[in-house]
Amino acid sequence: MAHPTVLTETATVSTGTRTTREGERGPGSDFAELARRVNDAGLLGRRPLYYTVRFGAVGLALAGGVAAFLTLGDSWAQLLVAAGLAVVFGQLGLAAHDLAHRQVFSRRRPSEAGGLLTADLLLGMSYGWWMNKHTRHHANPNHEAKDPDVSPDLLVWSRRQARQAVGIPRFIGRHQAALFFPLLTLEGLNLSLSSFKALRGPSVKRPLVEGALLVAHFALYFGGLFTVLSPGKAFVFLAVHQGLFGLYLGSVFAPNHKGMPMIEEGTRLDFLRRQVLTSRNVRGGAFIDAFMGGLNYQIEHHLFPSMPTPALAAAQRLTERYCAELGIPYHQTGLLASHGEALRHMRRIGEPLRDAR
């Protein structure tokens, strides 16, 4: 199905019986009915067995990767270990995501403790910085002025951003569709650098704790690399591991919103429509569920952020039917098709920059 590039202040949606200007219906009324149905289906309860098995498997994979690294020694076969650990790091990122949303524990303290250990110590990313950034994204997905995930720091996501772009975004924006996946290889390093910079900002509430955990992570990481491997092999291992890690994260997060409608300042959308219209689900069965950690059910995740991953498939069926009742566009596609939509959007958005040369 086709989607508009921007939702303007006069955007309309179909309610199933008539077309209304957004904001005419009572705020949250439509979502309240969906929430009642989801709650009645028992989809919001914790799933401790699922997370015990899932996190246990990721922990075993991490331990196995470290053991293989120590066993192989100074060998080019370590590049296979680097590739495997890139997947493990991606799964650690997904685990930190679920902990931040309190999908695992209902209480703040265990969620935060688990998030600090997983994100800062094991992954090398600030839990506090990322959680602050991700919370703002959830509140206003694809909002030009409020969603940090679509700020024009490097890429541009709307024609307005393209027209206003200067410096590096203007240069990269001309060919951003072609450069998108190469740039993703730097995402892992970008997350770590941004984490250290954020330690002096207000988004990190425990800078000393997070700083100590981040330093411990990189002391172990680089210490292990340059103790076991020769300098040349260590740098190649680092490039392969971090590059594939960034590609993995990008392949998980990019299909969720990239290429979906952008929201301009002043647009009036209730919570249900704001989350559904800007999100995309990815079909694909059990493999995609595991690969994307449940984020392939992005619409349902945005509507119910604390819902445990194994409940999302059932919530998807309820949500899709409910949106059909209201006439709200509900978009889902395959993984490759989702990337195609995102890349076509990026190429289309970059046209003003190419034409201006």
TrEMBL record:
Keyword Transferase: no
Domain Fatty acid desaturase: 75-333
UniProt cross-references to Pfam families, sorted A to Z: FA_desaturase
Record key words, sorted: Membrane, Transmembrane, Transmembrane helix
Low complexity composition bias: residue spans: 8-18
CDD domains (alphabetical): Delta6-FADS-like (cd03506)
TM helices/strands, residue ranges: 49-70, 76-100, 208-229, 235-254
Biased composition regions of type Basic and acidic residues, renumbered to the chain: 19-29
Hydrolase as UniProt keyword: no
Region (Disordered): 1-29
Annotated protein name in UniProt: Acyl-CoA desaturase
Species: Streptomyces ziwulingensis
